[in-house]
Specification:
Blueprint: H1 2-25, H2 27-41, E1 45-49, H3 56-64, E2 68-72, H4 85-89, E3 96-102, H5 111-122, H6 130-146, E4 152-157, E5 163-168, E6 171-176, E7 188-192, H7 196-210, E8 213-214
Parallel strand pairs: 2-3, 3-4
Antiparallel strand pairs: 1-7, 2-5, 4-8, 5-6, 6-7
């Protein structure tokens, strides 16, 4: 009888553990746990998206409420997607939108070329010069968009491609690039102000901005 009861008890415990693990694998319970740990450590980390692209829906909501926006990207494709529609459509008008993109006209063997070489190692379709042309296309898109806006500044940088930063006055989305995967498939950290990660995100952007050059495609009117 004792063996029978122990067998039932062990089965119940195993089932409970599996249920708990499956519950924690769901996004929201995991976010709650992350937020609780963040509160104790002071990091400001609230969520971790397994892929950068998975953050875009919530990112759009944060951008729609932003008083200012700062973007440092390695290519800028996200700027042409739905998350940024509120900014370009005029539905929301933050005081300033500062954008940093790599300089597509930098000399050969620039940091843009080095990132392109990294990507070509795991993506056979990534030919030399493709990244430069994609950045140019996104700059052209912003130039067209900025004609109807008064608050967009675009700068070009030639610095190591270490991360992507999308920040507002309240939150930051921070993705650290690796040399063996596309940025869109990398984990994205969501941090709120105040907090260590939010501060780091702004420091990354401000340092790059201070070492960038204004792009004539857009300007502060």
């Amino acid at each position: 009888m004792n063996a029978f009861l122990l067998g039932i008890l062990s089965s119940l415990i195993t089932s409970a553990l599996l249920l708990a693990l499956s519950f924690l694998r769901a996004s929201r319970p995991l976010w709650w746990l992350t937020a609780a740990c963040s509160w104790f450590t002071g990091t400001g980390l609230r969520r971790v998206y397994r892929r950068q692209s998975a953050a875009e829906q919530n990112m759009g909501l944060d951008l729609a409420r932003a008083r200012w926006v700062k973007v440092m990207a390695g290519r800028g494709n996200v700027l042409t997607r739905e998350a940024f529609t509120p900014l370009w459509s005029g539905d929301t008008s933050p005081a300033s939108v500062q954008i940093l993109l790599p300089d597509p006209d930098a000399p050969q063997d620039s940091w843009l070329d080095r990132r392109s070489q990294d990507v070509s190692r795991f993506d056979s379709g990534f030919t030399p010069g493709l990244l430069r042309s994609q950045v140019r296309a996104n700059i052209d898109y912003l130039a067209q968009t900025a004609r109807a806006q008064h608050n967009i500044q675009l700068h070009s940088y030639n610095l190591p491609h270490t991360c992507r930063v999308i920040a507002t006055d309240k939150v930051a989305y921070l993705t650290f690039y690796s040399d063996d995967v596309h940025g869109r498939n990398s984990p994205c950290l969501y941090a709120r102000s105040p907090g260590l990660l939010y501060t780091i995100a702004l420091q990354q952007f401000d340092t790059a901005w201070a070492n960038s050059t204004a792009n004539p495609a857009t300007r502060q009117n």
